[in-house]
Automatic annotation (TrEMBL):
Residues 346-368 form the Ice-binding protein C-terminal domain. The lineage of its organism: unclassified sequences, metagenomes, ecological metagenomes. Pfam families: Dockerin_1, PEP-CTERM. NCBIfam families: PEP_CTERM (TIGR02595). GO terms for biological process: polysaccharide catabolic process. It comes from marine sediment metagenome. GO terms for molecular function: hydrolase activity, hydrolyzing O-glycosyl compounds. CDD domains: Dockerin_II. This is Ice-binding protein C-terminal domain-containing protein.
């Protein structure tokens, strides 16, 4: 069967203002309905899933997962900048700044508060194993959830082959489940099987709009760990589990998540804080970072981010930030554990000399970009 692949027509669960303003409050991931008329929603029960306070939402766009008292992680494509709001654990915070992964669809944001420091009580560690495939995971997200059934007339009766997405915004958290299927060459992968299919798990679910950045959690010896972040689904606006032309045939929609375990080093670095001046968070302070700073030289405003060259988070890119680049010039990030094992820190270069060299290079870069 011909399948779409990420980057080749898959629907990325992106920011959607239009959906956010609709009335109504369907929510969360798309779950199959209870076959008992009037029965409760078939949602993963409390006690078999992480705490509700672990998953939040980034303004009216994506879902997020808490990793520390003040750090959240989500996909990079989900939208929302510095100063936008994140609601998690029953509280709203501001995004102070965020770190964007140099290649993967990931970013870690640091929350700030207008009054006291954020102190999230519930958060999870990341999954560090490489045995995700075939494991059953729990999926939590603030997506739009299930809407009306999609039906086709077949063998003298109406048969449901899928569901439209709901029309709510991202105001409701819902918990589903699924099984990770092996998919060589891709990150985490699963399909939305129909009820009664042998491969289906209890509370079989698929993400919908606003579930970008929603967590795929694995039970790691009794502790919930973050294994993936929802990135894309096969179809937009609706989810299928049977073939629309012949509903006797299963046709489960695909879903994808960014794998966290293979990016563990980067996530740890983002939580620890990258080197001052490492604006693209690749672990080194070099000409690429200087270029980022140079192209935003003297920029100021509430939306200025770390990636723009703002080391000290004052909303300005200026000589203070350039000084940090100079002090760490050509330095490489070392995890805290390595530093205490006698690895030592790189010897700083003579500050003034480096600052002069870096400053001259910044100006040269800037002139070249202008010209
Ligand atoms: Ca499945
Ligand atoms: Ca860098
Ligand atoms: Ca600054």
């Amino acid at each position: 069967m011909e399948r779409n692949r990420p980057g080749g027509g898959l629907y990325v669960l992106a920011f959607s203002v239009a959906l956010a303003v609709y009335a109504g409050s369907a929510g969360g991931v798309v779950l199959h309905p209870n076959p008992t008329p009037g029965g409760p929603e078939l949602e993963v029960p409390a006690g078999q899933r992480p705490s509700d306070d672990v998953v939040g939402r980034w303004s009216s766009s994506a879902s997020v997962v808490a990793l520390s008292p003040r750090h959240i992680i989500t996909t990079a494509h989900g939208g929302g900048g510095v100063g936008s709001s994140v609601t998690i654990g029953g509280q709203s915070y501001q995004v102070g700044w965020y770190y964007r992964h140099p290649t993967a669809d990931l970013r870690v944001a640091v929350l700030t508060d207008l009054g006291e420091e954020p102190d999230l009580q519930d958060y999870v560690d990341i999954y560090r194993g490489s045995d995700e495939d075939t494991q059953t995971f729990v999926l939590g997200g603030y997506g739009v959830g299930r809407g009306d059934p999609l039906q086709t007339f077949y063998n003298d009766q109406w048969v449901t082959y899928g569901y439209e997405w709901g029309e709510g915004g991202n105001d409701t958290l819902r918990w589903g489940s699924n099984r990770i299927d092996p998919s060589p060459g891709f990150d985490l992968f699963a399909v939305w099987d129909g009820p009664g299919i042998a491969a289906a798990v209890p509370y079989e679910a698929i993400p919908a709009d606003h579930d970008s950045g929603a967590g795929w959690f694995l039970d790691d010896g009794g502790e919930w760990k973050l294994a993936g972040l929802t990135q894309a689904v096969e179809r937009t606006g609706e989810s299928w589990y049977r073939n629309s032309g012949n509903p006797e045939l299963p046709d489960p929609d695909e879903m994808y998540a960014v794998r966290v375990s293979t990016n563990a080093y980067w996530v740890d670095m983002a939580l620890d804080g990258p080197l001052a001046g490492d604006f693209n968070t690749d672990g080194t302070v070099n000409i690429t970072d200087l270029g980022a700073l140079a192209s935003n030289w003297q920029a100021s405003g509430p939306g200025v981010n770390w990636s723009d060259g703002d080391v000290n988070h004052d909303g300005k890119v200026n000589i203070t930030d350039l000084g940090a680049v100079a002090s760490n010039w050509k330095h490489e990030y070392a995890p805290p554990a390595a530093a205490t094992m006698g690895g030592g820190q790189p010897v700083p270069e003579p500050g003034t000399l480096a600052l002069l060299a870096v400053g001259a290079a910044a100006l040269a870069l800037r002139r070249r970009r202008k010209g």
